[in-house]
């Protein structure tokens, strides 16, 4: 398992959203001893120098031997390096270190890549396992980058790092034993439900660990686990704060068609269980897609009409409408941005983690304005990546409260939808590139003040169908 320690003063950020090109060379070891270290730095360094020097990034090579457990990537040390190694790349304290660990995969020339090994190999989950360590308890500078105004974790930044780590893990799985692979693109397809099991604090150390858990013909699932030990978490199982499942698909870099992937061979009983769970999710995903295509016009009319009934009162007789309800369209918020070169990956596309962070922050703001009190993150319900976002695109994020769940008055749930549109004014067109779904609640201290959370109702059939689709998806999870 590669271990890297990066040092940087820039708050650089990279992500792994849309495409990952795999043109990977054979890793070669430098003249370092025990263990096999490869040093990437701004300038040529003495291989016998201290591996923790401020300009060095130490990566444990895994190309010539089995993967062994070792120390985690230090999230904070990447903030001390004075310059960035990759102009134009988008970095963060964590993703900078991950990118350095991945940089060896791009050293081979295009001629060499044509001769890369094409044979697929089976790999165990342990061969792609990677861990990031956040030393919040001792690293004040790192802690400041992840702290929100309530001294809690900025979930958008954590989502950004999760996406970056998933991309690095996908690279490692697709690399063959000699460090080479076929030239393919890895595309983030979706992110399944992420449920926050306990609050994440910024004054205790945090770890993110993940590995490939399932592989189909041209798709793979990567499971990431966020853990944090606190004085009240005596049981190791209590330290798990969040679990996330990312789905990637492989595309041939020349034809754009699906490309086969290295298979995964689970070894332990836990790895076999994760494989079975991922296989079941994949089957359910296919069934859901088939059902949507087949029955899109055959939805339950009674449910649809029930949702629309109150909305019609708002539209036709607003004076008689329920004062504890509000139309979906009246909860809308929006922001726009130009996609800048500084936010690109090596293929000129915008990092998916950056998009996830921007969507998360807009959803938080929307829930804040809707509830009238600072919300608490509960879960990411789902994320879909439909189309890549390129540098120079005019990107619009549109959010709304899709529905609320008010069964528990002390813990109301606010479900927020964020849709990203790539808008091309010169062509007079706009396309949906991403959809994000988040769930928030209101802080208990705010609920003591008898804060009123309204019911949200659709006014159009299109809105009602979106609500039903999300409710059905929630029930099926």
The largest pleated sheet is described as: 13 strands, mixed
> Termini separation (Å)?
32 Å
The chain-level mean pLDDT equals 77
The DSSP helix count reads 9
| Shape estimate | globular
Count the strands? Answer: 17
Indicate the percent of residues in helices. 25-40%
Annotate the secondary structure layout.
Elements: E1 20-22, E2 37-41, E3 56-60, E4 73-74, H1 93-102, H2 110-114, E5 130-134, H3 140-146, H4 155-174, E6 184-191, E7 194-196, E8 206-215, E9 219-227, E10 240-252, H5 269-295, H6 301-316, E11 325-327, E12 333-338, H7 352-371, E13 375-385, E14 394-405, E15 413-424, E16 429-442, H8 444-447, E17 455-457, H9 461-476
Parallel strand pairs: 4-5, 11-17
Antiparallel strand pairs: 1-6, 2-3, 5-8, 6-10, 6-13, 7-10, 7-13, 8-9, 9-10, 12-14, 13-16, 14-15, 15-16
Helix pairs in contact: 1-4, 4-7, 6-9
Family: Belongs to the acyl coenzyme A hydrolase family.
Domain HotDog ACOT-type: 132-254, 329-446
Protein name: HotDog ACOT-type domain-containing protein
């Amino acid at each position: 398992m590669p271990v890297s320690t990066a040092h940087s003063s820039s708050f650089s950020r990279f992500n792994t959203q849309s495409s990952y090109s795999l043109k990977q060379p054979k890793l070669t070891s430098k003249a370092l001893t025990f263990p096999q270290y490869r040093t990437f730095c701004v300038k040529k360094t003495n291989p016998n120098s201290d591996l923790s020097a401020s300009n060095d990034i130490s990566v444990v090579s895994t190309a010539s031997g089995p993967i062994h457990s070792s120390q985690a990537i230090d999230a904070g040390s990447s903030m001390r390096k004075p310059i960035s190694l990759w102009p134009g790349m988008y970095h963060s304290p964590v993703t900078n270190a991950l990118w350095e660990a991945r940089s060896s995969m791009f050293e081979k020339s295009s001629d060499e890549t044509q001769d890369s090994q094409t044979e697929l190999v089976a790999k165990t989950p342990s061969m792609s396992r990677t861990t990031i360590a956040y030393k919040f308890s001792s690293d004040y500078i790192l802690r400041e980058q992840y702290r929100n105004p309530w001294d809690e974790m900025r979930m958008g930044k954590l989502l950004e790092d999760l996406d970056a780590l998933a991309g690095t893990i996908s690279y490692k799985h697709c690399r063959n034993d000699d460090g080479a692979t076929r030239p393919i693109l890895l595309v983030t397809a979706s992110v399944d439900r992420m449920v926050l099991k306990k609050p994440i604090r910024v004054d205790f150390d945090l770890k993110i660990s993940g590995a490939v858990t399932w592989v189909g013909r041209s798709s793979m699932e990567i499971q990431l686990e966020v853990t944090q030990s606190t004085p009240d978490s005596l049981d190791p199982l209590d330290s798990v704060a969040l679990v996330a499942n990312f789905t990637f698909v492989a595309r041939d870099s020349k034809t754009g068609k699906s490309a086969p992937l290295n298979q995964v061979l689970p070894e332990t009983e836990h790895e076999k269980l994760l494989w079975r769970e991922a296989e079941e999710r994949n089957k359910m995903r296919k069934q859901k897609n088939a059902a949507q295509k087949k029955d899109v016009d055959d939805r339950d009319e009674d449910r649809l009409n029930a949702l629309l009934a109150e909305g019609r009162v708002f539209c036709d007789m607003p004076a008689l409408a329920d004062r504890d309800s509000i139309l979906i369209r009246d909860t809308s918020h929006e922001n726009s941005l130009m996609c800048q070169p500084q936010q690109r990956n090596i293929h000129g596309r915008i990092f998916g983690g950056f998009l996830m962070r921007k969507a998360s922050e807009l959803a938080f703001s929307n829930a804040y304005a809707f509830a009238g009190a600072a919300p608490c993150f509960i879960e990411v319900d789902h994320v879909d990546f439909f189309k890549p976002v390129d540098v120079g695109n005019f990107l619009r994020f549109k959010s709304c409260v899709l529905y609320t769940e008010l069964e528990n008055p002390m813990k109301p749930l606010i479900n927020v939808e964020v849709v990203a549109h790539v808008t091309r004014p010169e062509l007079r067109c706009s396309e949906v590139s991403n959809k994000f779904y988040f769930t928030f609640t209101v802080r208990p201290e705010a609920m003591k003040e008898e804060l009123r959370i309204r019911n949200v109702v659709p006014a159009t059939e299109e809105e009602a169908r979106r609500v039903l689709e999300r409710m059905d998806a929630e029930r099926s999870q």
